[in-house]
Amino acid sequence: MKAAHSKSLLLVWQLTELEAKRLGANGLEPAHFLIGLAKAVDVDWIDAVNKETADREAILEEVLREMRTLREELDKLGLEPRKLRRRLRRALIRQVENENKAKLRRGAEARQAFRAAEKIATLAQSPVFPKHLLHGIAVAGSETLLGLLKQLGFETEPILKAEAWAGQKLGSAILSGGAILN
């Protein structure tokens, strides 16, 4: 059974889509989700969550807790959120903003990262939180994304260590058989 996506992850996904559309993207890739994750830790969620929202207090409690955890995870990886966002935006921007009002769909690498995040969350017996997506992106190990981060001046060694850690958590048998990503 697939793990449910948490409210905090769905909010990150909405931020990611807004960012990707602003950059003129035709789809959502792991780099866009990294921008969304990095943006989410700096949002003032108390003001951002509508005061009329049902279960507002419970949503805020989860979101604030998960954003603290996500910031700690980004710090461990040596990824300063503002710097990460700015550099990725500059590298990904297209000349024309995407006028498409329809929802953007995830690309193959992003779907692979989500499958890994869902597997990590399932093993943790929890919904998929933003930290799981961050680790899922590391496990999916997009060479394109790692190359881009290196080109932008980020140290990729901590990300590769996170990938190895998550791989150990998932079990080498699962990863070697490809089941994590299928």
Shape, per Cα inertia axes = globular
- Could you spell the SSE succession in H and E letters? HHHHHHHHHH
Multimer state: single chain
The total of helices stands at: 10
Q: What's the β-strand tally?
A: 0
Main sheet, how many strands, which sense, barrel?
Answer: none
Low-confidence stretches: 172-182
Portion in strands: under 5%
- How much helix, percentage-wise, in residues? 55-70%
Structural class: mainly alpha
N-to-C terminal Cα separation, in Å?
14 Å
Radius of gyration: 16 Å
Mean pLDDT: 83
Describe the protein in words.
The chain is mainly alpha-helical and 182 residues long. It is 66% helix and 0% strand. Helix 7 (130-140) packs across helix 9.
How would you describe this structure in keywords?
182 residues; mainly alpha; single chain
Write the layout of secondary structure elements.
Layout: H1 7-22, H2 30-40, H3 45-48, H4 56-76, H5 81-92, H6 108-124, H7 130-140, H8 143-151, H9 157-170, H10 172-177
In short:
The chain contains ten helices and no strands.
